[in-house]
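Much of the work behind modern protein science is quiet bookkeeping, done one molecule at a time. The protein below has been through that process, and both of its lines are reproduced in full.
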Amino acid sequence: MTQEYSGVVIVDKPQGMTSHDVVGKLRRIFKTKKVGHTGTLDPMATGVLPVLIGNAVKASSFLVSDSKKYEARMLLGIETDTEDTSGKTLFEKEVICSDDEVKHAVLSFLGESEQTPPMYSALKVGGQKLCDLARQGIEIEREARKIFVDEISVDEKISSREWKISVSCSKGTYIRTLISDIGKKLSCGAAMSALKRTRSGNFCIENSFSIEALEKLAEENELEKALIPTESLFSSLDEVKLEKFYSRLARNGQPIYSSRAKLSLPKISERVRLYDENGVFFALGEVVEIDGEKCVRSIKMFDI
C-alpha cells in the first residue's frame, strides 16, 4: 500500500524550472496528485518554494500574505521587455552614475511605494494572464499597487554595471520591476540578472531541499524527513486546544461556546489553530459571535 504524505516541503527551486514543473516533479516523488505550491517563482529565479503535499493542499485558499526575502543582481544600462536579462533588449545605455548615486537610488525604495505589475507576469486581468497577452504583443493598462519594502541593501558591486542587492518585502512585490524602477530613477535603465528567494514567511532557504535530495529520500523511504507539519502554515495564529467532547463537536461543524468549553479566544473574526485533546492539529477555526457570546467553529478540516 502506498504511503500517504501530508505537510509542507520547502523546495530550493533550480533555475530554468517553472513552479508548475516543481509540482509535477513532487507529484511523482510523493506519488500523489495532491500537490500545490504557495507562490510562483519565475523560471529564472531560484530558492524557497513552499510546496503543499496531501491534506496540506486544503490550506492554499486560507494562507495569509507572507513577506518575502530575496537576493538579486541588478544590471545597469539596459532595459528589456521582461525587466530581466532573459527578455528582449529594448535599449542599452552607458552607465555614468557614481556608486553613491546607485546606493542612494536603491535605498530610496525603502518603505511604502506604488508598483505597476509587469506585463510578463502570471497576474490575471479580465480572466487573462498578463504574460499570455504579452506574448501576443498586447500591452494593457495595469493598475499600480501598494508595496512595502521592509529592508533593502546594496551588498556588493560585482562589476562596473552589476550590483548585488538584498530585499525584504511584502507579498506581491516584483523584484525585477523594483530593479527596473531603480534604473529609471538613475536614468540609465536596469534589468534583473539573477534572483534567489531566501525566505517566504517562516520558511527559509536553510531548511530547503533540492529536487535531487528529495528523490534520494524517496529511494530511501525517508520522505518524512522533508515534511514540515501543516500547522506551520498558520504559525502566526493563536492555538486553541479542545477537550475530547468539544473536539468531536468541532469536527462535526458545531460552534464551541467559549464559556462552556472554558476557552480564551481572540477577537471576533480572528482565525485560530484547533487542536484535539491529544494535542493533534485537526482544523483551522474562526472566532464568531453567537447570541452575544464568543464561539469558535472549524472552517477547514485537515485530518480527514
Notes: The first strand starts at residue 7 and ends at 13.
